[in-house]
Amino acid sequence: NLYNGSSWTVNANILSIGNNGTGTLDIKGGSKVNASGASGAIYIGRYAGSSGVATVSGSDSLLSSTFDVNIGVAGSGTLEILNGAVAKSRKGIIASGANSEGHVTVSDPDSQWQLANGISIASGANSIGTLTIANGASVSAGGSVTTVGGGGISQTASITVTGNNSSLTTSGGS
User: Does the pTM exceed 0.90?
Assistant: First the structure.
């Protein structure tokens, strides 16, 4: 957990929250986590049976990745961006593996998820993926948003945008 303006730069290829078990990462009070290794990927709920939760909360709090943020790869993953916090990544991948579950909530004014490329939701067989944008938060993607694509049967994807000034914007591409 990082509080009160702390910072952590991860110079490894992967930052994993809930790799083979249960993991949590709390970034609050203007703290910052930057995954900047060769690939700089972030995994939340990476392997089957795992569970991960990453919460970024408060003004000036930041989670950034030079690569993709993967929420629910083969396990269960949750990413929360709240109370004016920001998350930045190349791509957002929600519920990508078989039997995975991924949930992203971006809520409250000035909370943002900024993606250089697109968002993929529920691409794995039997996967469940959700994206909720609420209470004046915003998600901006430099690519498209793809739901239920190519993984097989029983995929469930949902996108909810609710509340004044909440927004999801895309600019095409991948």
Answer: yes
